[in-house]
Amino acid sequence: MATLRELKGRIGSVASSEKITGAMKMISSAKMHKAEGALRQLKPYREQVETIIANLLGSDASFDSPLMTPRDTVSNYAVVVWGSDDGLCGAYNMNIFKQLVSHLAGLREKYGDTVHITVIPIGAKIAKAAAKIKVGGVNVKLPEDVDSKTTEVKDFTWRLRDSFLNGEYDVIDVLYMSYKSVSRQRLETSQLLPVTAGAFADLDSEIKPRPYIFEPSAEVIFNKVLPMYLLAVIQDVFTENRASEQAARVMAMQSANDNAKKLFDQLQLEFNKLRQQAITTELLDILGGQVK
Fold first, then answer.
1. pTM of the prediction?
2. Is CATH 1.10.287.80 the right assignment for the domain spanning 4-25+252-291?
3. 3-class secondary-structure state, position 69
4. Which of 38, 130, 140, 290 is the most buried (most CB within 10 A)?
């Protein structure tokens, strides 16, 4: 049975833990709201780029882009997966890793064991988990450190584009956690390259060709705007993943804070009972001495 001193020490430790988790929750919440603001700023730009491409595809002009040309055979496949650099975010990275394993299994089933798959993890935690993948000859490739800074995101996007154009990869997928709200994030897997017409939400498959006069040519405009679309997608993915990570950390810290508070109340009740028992024992000893 614990003594009063031991219980008092445990209560102090739990109280400190409660303060720490509360502070971490506030910090993560602030970072999450900042990422939410960045998402709201990115949305109009991406929608405008998608609208331009949709109008181009819906016109009667003829043009093509190597970024939209599918390969006859798929020999090299790349999967870019986003995770977190830090822990304390619950099952966030584990859920992403499970989805990655499932996606790789699906690719093996679709393309066979001859296809060479490269996993490109973004984030220290998911990189560590991906490094353990050995089934099926999956090659784990760690890129240079990439964060949310615009220059680094651009460089990373252009590296992916160039890797596709020079034939290093035939298809590139992105796997990340899409941010819906502080309590809801959803795993998303989509094809980045080659770009498909179905990637544009505003594009109606039954749009009738409309006569346009383009200056410069439709092909020049299209090949200028399409890389902008790729950059918008990668920027959006980075920001959504950052917001989702912080939202998961907010929920994890809230859960830890609730558990600490519950444990604090239990220990405080046990401490009060033990103290009351000690006081009662002392009173009985005093009364017993007086009677004698």
1. 0.80
2. yes
3. coil
4. 130
